[in-house]
Each structure stands twice: as structure tokens, then as C-alpha cells.
Amino acid sequence: MDIIEEIRKYNQTRGLTLPKGESYRKRIQAVNAIYDEHVKDGVSNRFIWRMYIHPLFGISERTFYNYLKRATF
């Protein structure tokens, strides 16, 4: 999937008024959805973070791994 499409999908959920803590939950869900979509291609986690997650969310690699651990949030 193209990074432009990823940005469009994420931007659809941005700008909405969310209850406190909901933006964090939505961001974790979005990161995990992108990860789940691209991990099936057999690429490394670092590649997924570098090409799709970091340009879109601007989070560090460590934060990315913390988000993956919180998949059941």
C-alpha cells in the first residue's frame, strides 16, 4: 500500500473531537493496523517503521515497539 493512502486513512480519523485518552488509543490502533497490513509481506519491523510509521506519526522506533505491545489496549 502506498504511504499516501496510509496518510489519507489516518487523516480521516484526525480532527475529530475525541474523549480524553481516545487519541492515544486511536493512534495505537492505527499503528497496529498499518503494521498488521505490512508484516504479511515479510519485511522487517524496522522497514515498516522507517517507511510507513515514522513519516506518518513521527514516533521513535522504541515508541513503535511499545505501541505493538499495547495491541490489546
Describe this structure in words.
The protein has 73 residues and is mainly alpha-helical. It has four helices and no strands. The mean pLDDT is 83.
Q: Beta-sheet strand percentage? A: under 5%
Overall pLDDT, averaged? 83
* SSE run: HHHH
Which structural category do the helix and sheet elements fall into?
mainly alpha
Count of alpha and pi helical runs: 4
Largest sheet: none
Q: How many angstroms separate the termini?
A: 25 Å
What order do the helices and strands come in, and which of them pair?
Layout: H1 3-13, H2 22-39, H3 45-57, H4 61-69
List keywords for this structure.
73 residues; mainly alpha; 70% helix; globular
In summary, what is this structure?
The protein starts with a helix and ends with a helix. It is mainly alpha-helical and 73 residues long.
